[in-house]
Each structure stands twice: as C-alpha cells, then as structure tokens.
Amino acid sequence: MNYNIEEFCCEHCLVNNVLEAMFEIQSMKDGEYTSVAIMCKEDLAEKLIKLFGNTTLNDFEFDFTVINFDKVDYEGEYVVLVDTNGEVSVEKIYDEDGLQTFDEDLIFISDECCSRIFINQNDFCDNVISFGIGHDEDGNEFDEED
Q: Which residues of the chain are under the pLDDT cut of 50?
C-alpha cells in the first residue's frame, strides 16, 4: 500500500489534484476506466458536490449518478466518488451494515475522518492519501493570498 500525506490550501486545489491524479492513473492503465474516492466530513462533502456540479473537464460536465446526502438523520462521514466517465456519486460511509469499504484506484481521506476509516481502507486500496485543507506541510495555516 502507498500512503501519502497532502495538504491543500482550499477545496479547489483538492479537486484539481484529485482530477490530475485520476487521469494520471488512467494513462498508466492504458486508458482504462479509473475511479477516485474522497472520504470526508459533511461540510466538505457538501462543498465538493457544489464544486463538481460547476466543473467541466475534457469538454464534458460531471454527471451526478447518486447523491445520498442527509444532514438531518446522519452525522457520519461521506465518500464522493469520481470516475473517468465523468460520473460523480455521494454516499454515506456508514450504512445499515456498518462501515463500508471502497476499492477505487486512489482514495483521498480527510484528516478529519475517524481513524477506523483509515484502518478499514488499508486492506482495500493500494493507494491512500491522507489530506488536510488550509494548512501547509508544517501545520501552519495558509494565508488568504496563498
């Protein structure tokens, strides 16, 4: 398993990095279907839904296939799934059976997520990136101008 830690100044930089990584993996797989997961708390998931809803790439817009987002009855983490077909879905990480696992080509896990999610995903994905938003590599907050 490859495990990396990344820090992003904002959600836009996260989305750009996710998309670059997804298409880089696709090119290494000779153009095969590739998918990426972003595991995060509710607030970031909501921002990502808006960002992907307003993003176009390679002359197509992203199409939301499933959005299972519930701010009233669910307080757990979410997974935003993105693939090279331009499809985006949002699911609860915890369902009626407990903690779900995902076997995407690459998984980004927010440093705000429960540690059980990190541990659980280690067995199902070879490439995991832990990420934070708003801090540099030394833990210092980014300035608004950065």
A: 144-146
Structure tokens at 141: 């907050």
User: Rounded CA gap, 18 and 22, in Å?
Assistant: 6
Residue 20 is encoded by which pair of tokens? 């670059």
What predicted TM-score, i.e. pTM, was given to this entire model?
Answer: 0.87
- The pair of three-digit structure tokens given for residue 87, joined into one six-digit string: 């499809």
Please state whether 140 falls in left (phi above 0), alpha (psi between -120 and 50) or beta.
beta
Amino acid at 76: G
The Cα-based distances of 9 to 5, 18, 133 in angstroms read 14, 14, 6
For residue 72 the two structure tokens come to 């009233």
Residue 81 φ/ψ, nearest 5 degrees? -105, 130
C-alpha distances in Å from residue 85, one per residue of 40, 64, 71? 22, 11, 28
DSSP state letter for 11? H
Residues 6+ apart with CB under 8 A from 66: 89, 90, 91
One-letter amino acid at 108 equals: F
